[in-house]
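Teaching assistant here, posting this on the class forum so everyone can see the example we discussed in section. The complex has two components, and the goal was to see what a joint structure prediction looks like when all of them are supplied at once.
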Amino acid sequence: MKEKKLKYTLISTASVFCFLLIWYLIADVFKVFPSSTFPSPFKVATAFVRKLTVTTPDGGTLGKHLIASLKVVLLGYLLGIVIGVPLGILMGWYRRVDLIVKPLFDLIRPIPPVGWIPLMILWLGIGIQAKATVIFVSAVTPAIINAYTGIKQTNPVHIWVARTFGASNFETLLKVGIPSALPMIFAGLKVSLGASWMALVAAEMLASTEGLGYMIQMNRMVGKADNIMVGMITIGLVGALLTYILETLEKKLVKGGRNK
Amino acid sequence: MKKKFQNSKTETVVYFICSLVGLLIVWQLAVSFTSLQKVMPSPFVVLGFIGQSLTQKIGGKILPLHILASLKRVFVGYFLACIIGIPLGILMGCSKTGKAIVKPIFELLRPIPGLAWIPLAILWFGIGETSKYFIICVSAIVSIILNAYAGASQVDQTLVGAARMLGAKPAQIFLYITLPASVPQIFAGLQVGLSSSWMAVIAAEMIRANEGAGWIITTGMESGNTVQILAGMISIGLVGLLLASLLRLIERGLCSWNIQGR
């Protein structure tokens, strides 16, 4: 069994290695495409190191852009989940709230968050408010949907038990509904995070003066593909890191459901 | 029991209409009596604009043709994502060697959001249609692969064992067990992929295009025309909803056994 596992690990390593090798061969050895549009992995790595200190051509180091992006995304995301999760829980638990809010929510939901960008730019300018609002819109939808579904899936038997022991409706929600919806809520938080990160990139590409999305867009205009790839890799890495943090938090907070 | 069900259904419809009318009234009142009117047109102006643009041209084309242009892009990119993504996902789910080869590369590329590919795509393929197809394909393919993979790897091994015991060849097992069993999961992925590709086309058109639904809202922004932006957003939402319902209909036709079982 262990030997088999080793075999697949080897194949995986070889696969990643081959991927990089083919990339290198196409870019540097055979020069299929000009290196300005298709840089080799080594060029991208050098560009990555260089971008940590050099500000040209987009007016900021990688760190500065990263911090600018993180600030916006965390603001919008936190607002989105602070409003979205409780709203979803209320919609799932109280039928009256559900009947009033759900139709409004269903009307607004089909519009992709990216579609809000022009309106927000027109209303709020290209500063942090417009971007944070767009990210809020993209984070709030999955947060609401998952909290709602999580509450709706509460096992009725557990609710009856709480009722039998004399818990009030609100107590039942607090002690039964929310804990059993937590795994679902956390799944929503993860989807929200991915959606916010994507909305951020789109918003920064359209109208911004700093941030990772702005950085890749500016480098596109001057035709520096190595810097674009540095930006993309950073976006991917930070996105993966944020998801990892959320997963660690989930393991700490969510009890049960994992031992199945 | 049945009567109660019907009651709750009519109640839902009544509340839906109430909140829709409520929204329109609040919107209208806010526009008529507060300073919001400087930045926000009344709902009827927006609806009127949509009706008008069915026959009148915006930037050389009427609104339905703009939407059709976007839909064409989505169709090509999405179709590409399906024919690459589904087999790749199934391969990862069925064969351990295939999984060992494809999964690490997929995991490396997956965290990069589809929209982050836009600058590179424009640099590689120019500002024409090819770069848009590429972006749509990249955005849609992730969830398609993931779900096809999940579907194929969660096949009930008892069924596979039973088929093998009865002398089925690997090809038969694949065709009669693995494939049908993963169809519901594949459709879940197709549904998510479709909405991501609709979003991707809007984003791609907002950044560089001469036509399409995304183009309508960005030109609205550039000329400060809130009516046009809102009309564009409403039509984008409606088309997105329509696409999702269409796919659900196809799913109902293709795997009715799964829906009945729910």
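For the discussion questions: Chain B has a mean pLDDT of 85. Residues 206 and 218 of chain B are 6 Å apart (CA to CA). Think about how each of these relates to the inputs above.
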